[in-house]
Amino acid sequence: MLGFPGLLGHGFGHAKVSRKRKLAALIIAGCADLVQGVLFPFVVEGGFSPVEWVVDIAAALGLLLVVGLKARLVVAFVAELVPGLDLFPTWTALVLSLPVEEVSGSGLPAREVKDEEG
């Protein structure tokens, strides 16, 4: 568990996430969007619906714990509060837009190799 300082350490940068974290985040986001689709009559008001708040806060906290603090997460949360815009699968789109870190053949994250000139 990262704890609050660890979450902030990820920052608003463009840090890439591992494939496992992206998959876990995709499951959380997909479930949140699916619940909102099934409960459409109760969440159609956007930010005015208590059901919408519960689903969105749970999704945001779950994604925050899995991928860390990202600017995209804040944008997706705000978009979920807008009536009508929340019909789009915002959480899933957010996760699909996250860059994945490349893994070398050893299973470790790939490192950049710098050219050393003469």
Question: Short summary of the structure?
Answer:
The chain is mainly alpha-helical and 118 residues long.
Topology:
Blueprint: H1 3-10, H2 19-38, H3 40-43, H4 50-67, H5 71-80, H6 90-96
Helix pairs in contact: 2-4, 2-6, 4-5
Structure description:
This protein is 57% helix and 0% strand. The protein has a domain of 79 residues. The longest helix has 20 residues. It contains six helices and no strands. The N terminus is likely disordered.
Which consecutive residue ranges, at least 5 long each, have pLDDT under 50? Answer: 1-11
The shape is elongated
Secondary structure category: mainly alpha
- How many helices does DSSP assign? 6
Percent helix range: 55-70%
Radius of gyration: 17 Å
Biggest sheet descriptor: none
CA-CA gap between termini = 45 Å
* Strand tally: 0
Q: What is the residue-mean pLDDT, rounded to a whole number? A: 78
Order of helical and strand elements: HHHHHH
Content of β-strand: under 5%
Tags for this entry?
elongated, 118 residues, 6 helices, mainly alpha
